[in-house]
User: Fold this.
Amino acid sequence: MLQPPLPNPGRILRDLMASGTVVMPGAYNALTARLAWQCGAKAGYLSGGAMANALLGAPDIALTTLDEVSRTAAQACQAAPIPLICDGDTGFGEVWNVRRTIIEFERAGLAGLHLEDQVSPKRCGHLGGKQVLETEAMSEKVRAAVAARRNPDFVLIARTDAYGVEGIEGTIRRAQAYIEAGADAIFPEGLSSEVDFRTVRKELGSTPLLANMTEFGRTPLFTVQQFSDWGYQMVIFPVSALRVTLFAVESFYQDLLAQGTQAEWMERMMTRADLYKLVNYEEYERSDAAWRDLR
Assistant:
């Protein structure tokens, strides 16, 4: 059933990070977040790119609004009883927008978010042509985020896209500045080698690190175990589920339009019973019956 968000998801996530590398499947709505939980995920990631694709049919270029993203996040937090972090893009504007983003994301029930240092409109972290803010401008956003949060367990992750612009040296220099500004963790985006992942870990000491294991990007397909061995506390798979879904749905639509029947797909779709189990239909019916009996 839909439930209020977890009372302190940030604390749960911090405890998970303290005990090992946290695997965060990417979700883009309440149902995919719930499915990740049902499959055994201990935490999840709400991808800004996947939400832009799914909600708007548009690319990840800062077209989604704070209201759209926070509403989707709130729905996911009610459906999946695991800590979720959300892509906060550039904070949807400048420092005052960042402050409002933190307020809305905490209200949604999230465990945390990441903010990035790109110039808006941002680009996918694994594309070229990116521009980054001055380091101090991003540090101001981090300080605004720290000042805005009400729960100190809410996890503030600073993402830097400097690797494609300033190299590994710039990535480390910026990450150190963001840590000094108050970031709880660092997300070094777009790294392309084991050496660079290890270098970031070495230079940033004990600060928690998030790795983005997206496919078709600049990062080779490393495993969770490898990231764990290198000292990373979180690994996200942001758009993988959406890509798998679209691949299957595209094939289905093509076949349906060609054949005029879904008969060949019956063994490749979730049954009605399994879908009802996923959304916990029986519990809704039991509760409805109980409430009727009380009237």
